[in-house]
Amino acid sequence: MHRSSFRSPVSSLPAPVGQPQSPVVKANLPPWPLPHFPYGSAVLYCAFAHHRYWKQEVDRAEENGEKPSLKKAIIKCYWKSCLLSSIFIFFEECTMVLLPLLLGKMISYFENPKGSNALHDAYICAAVLSACVLLWAILHHLNFNHLQRVGMRLRVATSHMIYHRAFHLSNLALRKTTTGQIVNLLSNDVKRFDQVTTFLHYLWVGPLQAIAVTALLYMEIGISCLAGMAILIILLVLQSCFGKLFSSLRSKTTALTDDRIKTMSEVITGIRTIKMYAWEKSFVELITTLRRDEISKILKSSYLRGMNLAIFFAASKIMIFITFIIAVVLNNRITVSQVFLVVMLFETVRFTGTLYFPMAIEKVSEAVVSINRIKDFLLLEEIPLHDHQLLPSDGETIVDVQDLTAFWDKVTRTPALKGLSFTVRPGELLAVVGPVGAGKSSLLSALLGELSLIQGNVNVHGRIAYVSQQPWVFPGTVRSNILFGKKYEEDRYKEVIKACALEKNLQNLKERDQTVIGDGGTPLSEGQKARISLARAVYQDADIYLLDDPLSAVDVEVSRHLFEQCICQALKDKVTILVTHQLQYLKAASKILQLENGEMVEKGPYTEFLKSRIDSDSLSKKTEEPEPSSKSPDQPQESFTQSMKDAAPEDHDTEDILVKLPLEDYSKGQVGCKTYKNYFTAGTHWSIIIFLILVNIAAQVNKDIYFAFRQGNEMKTIDLNWFKCIYHPFGITRSLVLFYILVRSSQILHNKMVESILRSLVVFFDRNSIGRILNRFCKDIGLMDDLLPLTFQDLIQTFLLVIGVVIVMVAMIPWTVIPLALLGLIFFLLQLYFLNTSGDVKRLECASDIFPLSIFSPGTPTIQAYKAKQKFQKLFETCQDLHSESWLMLLTMSQCFAMCLDVVCAILVIGVAFGALILKESWTPGQIGLVLSLTLTLMRMFQWCVRQSTEVNMMMSAERVIEYTELEKEEPWELDFRPPAYWPDNGMIAFNNVNFKYSPDGPLVLKDLTVSTKPKEKVCIVGKTGAGKSTISIDKNLTTSIGLHDLRKKMSVVPQEPVLFIGTMKKNLDPFKEHKEEDLWNALEEVQLKETIQGLPGKMDTELAESGSNLSVGQRQLLCLARAILRKSRILIMDEATSNVDPRTDELIQKIIHGTLVQCTVLTITNRLSSVVDSNRIMVLDSGKLEEYDKPHILMHNKNSLLYKMAQQLGETEAAALAQRAKEVSLLQRVVIKVRLQGSLLTLGVW
């Protein structure tokens, strides 16, 4: 199957009429030849009214003290469109009721053809019948097209509201939702609106048509019709009960789906940690269990759908049977015209009453559940809004905080900051220091207006630039990440690149600053991301700079360069607040603010700190309070005032933000036979499928007995016992079995996809965004769960019905095979043409249904600080417009195709109607009635059967899922050779001529590395940022005979970026309950977190938010370190594991490494030279090559070594202190070795 990919810019969309133009986000998206909307952005057009009515509903509810209703807002917004469609559907159903009456009139002519004006009246009836058939085709498709467009507008507007709300959620609100839930809302819940609008009107059309048909039947055959209609009423009541069950099951299913998608989102985000700890099997089992619970609810819903379809195909037969039985009992004589009139009226009410009406109940029930879920999300707490546009009268830029007390969680109201007061003016640098969890990041969040204030004043006057502690880049080029909406000025851009030490890194990139980074782009180190984030802030030329520890992720040389050239020079005239653990830079600060437990310990210049004898030790004491990194609002209170004012917006200095969305390859042509084979055989064996086909054929053969009539004016006795005893059990059985098989196929393919993804290479996750992967688990699996089984069931039953009708028609009047064959040929050609065209459009629709999810959790603080929410909202609107274009094209093509089918069928009906009149001498009334009634039935069924065969385009969802079950896999988890339990007993690692790169087409990041470690040795790895020191491997000669799990389970890795999961503290330390609780507390104590956790209300059972956002970054790193210590492995790899902790905590961690982990080989990757000198040996890497490998004191006293030069960047005094310490450590190690040797000799002498 041919595959292609594309990447091309799409112009930005204009703002709606009446709104000013603002900088928007451009997305690199494919310029598909699809229809464009006349309103610029269709999303804005749809969302504008929707937002207005929702806001009015919220205001009304607040005034009345009620909860707002999203249903009311939707009704107010779309009632006019629904009213228009109700007119169409009313006349459409009137024509359907009129058709049986005209048919009865025509058949009555054949019963009594000798009337004076009988032939004339028959021709008039035929002409009116033809007109009604054509009118029905036009009204039906106009109405259907209109309703689907209404559903699309509702879906698009609601998606816009969800995405918009996600940008404004507070910290407390973020704890109540997850990225997985947002994905589920955008992928599955809003899709219900596309379906509910199509069937909504049948809630009133069904009962109304039933009343009209009852009246007509009563006038024709009398009271016996009431028996048949009573059956219909019973079925309607039964299906209404089904609707309540649908609602209940939908609520339970969505909750389970949220859990599954949330877990899958965490797996994708933390895939490196999962692979490092060999947790793949455990997570596969966890997700499989969640899926099993979800499928149990989906199966029940599918069985209800199967029952509804079975009722639909059997209802008219039961009603006709009961009606005629009662008529016979009452001795009513029924003519042929009355028979066909009754049959056609029951067929008419069957479609509306037993198909569309229950479908409407089902879709409305599910839509109500989705509306309530969306409403709950829209009502989550948001960040309080502030006026950012006005300048103070004097135009002064200043940050002034007086007596600030604030909290994150307004429920617990535990202060994160208490009684802080300080003022920072232009040209001043305020350094904020303190131990882990002291409230440093909370202070910056308070200045950004993201904390709820209890008392005090916060005045921030000026435009703000913010650098978060966890650097964030969006999918795009390096240049677009730095410009971030500012116009490109070459001189200024080069100055910023130089000040942020990015020149060398850009030279190493293949496409320099045009290299795509972020989701699906070139992987960057944390240090490179930190410098890009800092460059973004500097290029903005803001008035106030809030820098949250940007120096921890880079090496000493780069750190000094950033501080001197960027912070002290480029920002010398700005208001700068720097959170840092790099205490060597405090001398250059204008003021220092020391925090502990959210309180101010000391404030003033560096000289005052020396006078008060507060040194680096006291700056690094341990704290107890966790520091959330997300936001939580509260209503302003009388005890404080908050003023946040920006300089006037500089629209003339802005341009579009170019975001390169991750585009996936897509197949061309129709879905292959292999996909169908894999789909059907995933749920059962071929023998079961053959048996199911035979059951369907048997059911259809028995049903066709119903059409056996005697040629004459009276009915032949019908053997309805066969029909009653055989058809119904077969009909119900085939429905339930088919639904079970297809839902089970969905379950098995989902589980295979989970296992395949967890077995895939890490590069797969670098090249595919989390949104793209989750789209398979959410949207595609959702279609396979709900719509695909229903479509196949409908297709099979309709196809067999069409075959039965054609057989009866040909058996009764053989020459009808000619128009039927011609009709079939035309339908086949139309279907072939449509499938070839719609298949590609459907694939484009699937590929364009993407959401830029990577900006939510990590990028939201930065976007909010830069006031760029509106810009990134435009990105979502662009994506939605593109998807809507492909959806609208697919919808239009489908309607045109259906219209052609109906017109062809209408021509057949017209030909049969007038042909019967012309050849009236050759046919009996029974034949005429049978052929005409079957032709009318065929008009609906034939085109619906062909349309359903094209709806199998949804098999592309199965194709996309199956594609992910066949991903390239990493090496086997286990091999035949299993190492002994005590392996490795020494922990010696050797690299022999190792060359390593992240992807087959990527550059080498390790080059000819040959090095080895001694058993139980502590080795530190240092180098320049991005030098390749994070790429550690074990020589392939040592690992080729060992499975990946056997290898990974023997090592513990603490990654550079901490990964935590939603759940309790205990679950994050020991996800699969492998350790005692006492061991958990011991591990926490070793990483200096025991007292902090004990001080929490829930202690070890404290719930962590998504990504552990209710802990500070430093606390997250320490928690990951505790998790690694628990494994008690012989090999421990620490990749910048303490970069975000204070020096005192880092010193204590080093003592643990040389004490508790004395029997363990430890590889420590760090930028802190103070952590280096305690190691046995130091490995210095540069550009992936080993430059130095020796003992610390040797390298520190060698003036030509890279380590010595790096130490000099700290200053001569600090470098000399490190050299002296390295010498002392070396002497101490010699003494320890000597003592151990003497002890060994003494022990040997005793023996």
UniProtKB/TrEMBL annotation:
UniProt KW keywords: ATP-binding, Membrane, Nucleotide-binding, Transmembrane, Transmembrane helix, Transport
Family annotation (SMART domains): AAA
Feature: compositional bias, Basic and acidic residues: 616-625
Keyword NADP: no
Primary subcellular site in the record, as a coarse category: membrane
An example molecular function term from Gene Ontology annotations: ATP binding
PROSITE patterns: ABC_TM1F, ABC_TRANSPORTER_1, ABC_TRANSPORTER_2
Domain ABC transporter, first and last residues per copy: 399-622, 989-1208
Residue ranges constituting the ABC transmembrane type-1 domain according to the UniProt record: 83-346, 730-954
Stretches with biased composition (Polar residues): 1-11, 629-644
Pfam families found in the cross-reference section: ABC_membrane (PF00664), ABC_tran (PF00005)
Renumbered residue ranges of the record's region Disordered: 1-21, 616-651
Ranges that cross the membrane: 77-101, 121-139, 225-246, 309-330, 336-357, 679-701, 721-743, 787-811, 896-919
Annotated localization: Membrane
Any one annotated GO CC term: basolateral plasma membrane
Protein's name according to its UniProt entry: Multidrug resistance-associated protein 4-like
Organism: Bos mutus grunniens
